[in-house]
């Protein structure tokens, strides 16, 4: 069994970048488990569930902040959420997303933005894109900041892709993905997220590199899986991508709970005497509140 194997109650050693980098399923490793989280309670839940990595994803824009895409969030937004996750001191490795336009202008700007996320509490950063990102990846790695790549359906390219569309469906596009993965691994990425590609292509990419490929909508033949917290728990129920498996229906349970609370307030059933503070009988009597002390 690998050194970062999930064992929520016993192994409290932090998950490290080198430990993640060595997790290839073909070498006998257990698949990596990554889930997003954007705040301290979410981080504690992911930690207690025994995941390996917590991604403070720019998906925060869509599932928490109410935007229609991920392009609206800034480095400061991501740093704010990364710091909240880090304050929970979770055992999983914290991966912070570099948002759109934070690694597109210059290498200096890119390294500074990556450093902001590390200072907020991340153990590494993630960025989207293939070979054209190599100079930025090399600059970040050169500053001793570990980088995770992200290929395939890259949500920050929504306008260039013409929507959230499965990538790598044609021969040439599939071969480009393999070449991109090799270039990212060569540039120093310690792992790569592969999103929204046919399983067969994910399998090719996974076989082509010696760093772990973490899939989302990329089928089973990869080195790990990542899902968005609100999708796994059924908090987000408006969109249901094919690749999401919901393990709970917390939106329905939450609506039911808040409706029951509202009902109890309106009927006077809440709060009960046991849920209220009370004066001593003596003080109540002094105040003329006979028979009303607890
Ligand atoms: O921001 C995010 O949640 C992501 C995952 C979809 C991999 O990048």
Describe it for me?
This protein has two domains: 232 residues, Alpha-Beta Barrel (TIM Barrel); 34 residues, no CATH class. β6, α9 and β7 form a beta-alpha-beta unit. The radius of gyration is 23 Å and the shape is elongated. The chain has twelve helices and eight strands. The protein has an eight-stranded parallel barrel, surrounded by six helices. The termini are far apart. It is of the alpha/beta class. 38% of the residues lie in helices and 12% in strands. 3-methyl-2-oxobutanoic acid binds next to β6.
What is the domain total for the residues?
Answer: 2
- Tell me what portion of residues adopts beta-strand conformation: 5-15%
Number of strands: 8
CATH topology of the largest domain: TIM Barrel
What number is the mean pLDDT? 95
CATH uppermost class of the largest domain = Alpha Beta
The unreliable regions are 1-7
The SSE order reads: HEHEHHEHEHEHHEHEEHHH
- Quaternary state of this entry equals single chain
């Amino acid at each position: 069994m690998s050194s970062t194997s999930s064992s929520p109650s016993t192994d409290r050693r932090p998950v490290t970048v080198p430990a993640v980098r060595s997790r290839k399923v073909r070498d006998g490793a257990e698949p990596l488990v990554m889930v997003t989280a954007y705040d301290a309670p979410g981080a504690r839940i992911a930690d207690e569930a025994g995941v390996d990595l917590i991604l403070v994803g720019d998906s925060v824009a869509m599932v928490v902040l109410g935007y229609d895409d991920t392009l609206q969030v800034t480095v400061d937004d991501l740093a704010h959420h990364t710091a909240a996750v880090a304050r929970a001191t979770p055992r999983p490795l914290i991966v912070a997303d570099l948002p759109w336009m934070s690694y597109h202008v210059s290498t200096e700007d890119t390294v500074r933005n990556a450093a902001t996320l590390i200072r907020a509490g991340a153990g590494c950063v993630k960025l989207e894109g293939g070979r054209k990102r190599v100079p930025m990846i090399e600059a970040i790695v050169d500053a001793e900041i570990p980088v995770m790549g992200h290929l395939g359906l890259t949500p920050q390219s929504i306008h260039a892709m013409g929507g959230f569309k499965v990538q790598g469906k044609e021969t040439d596009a599939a071969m480009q993905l393999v070449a991109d993965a090799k270039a990212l691994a060569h540039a120093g990425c310690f792992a790569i997220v592969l999103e929204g590609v046919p399983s067969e292509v994910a399998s090719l990419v996974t076989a082509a590199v010696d760093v772990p490929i973490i899939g989302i909508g990329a089928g089973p033949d990869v080195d790990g899986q990542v899902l968005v917290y609100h999708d796994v728990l059924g908090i987000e129920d408006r969109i249901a991508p094919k690749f999401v498996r919901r393990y709970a229906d917390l939106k329905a349970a939450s609506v039911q709970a808040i409706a029951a609370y509202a009902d109890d307030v309106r009927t006077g059933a809440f709060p009960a005497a046991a849920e209220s503070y009370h004066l001593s009988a003596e003080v109540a009597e002094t105040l003329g509140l006979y028979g009303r002390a607890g």
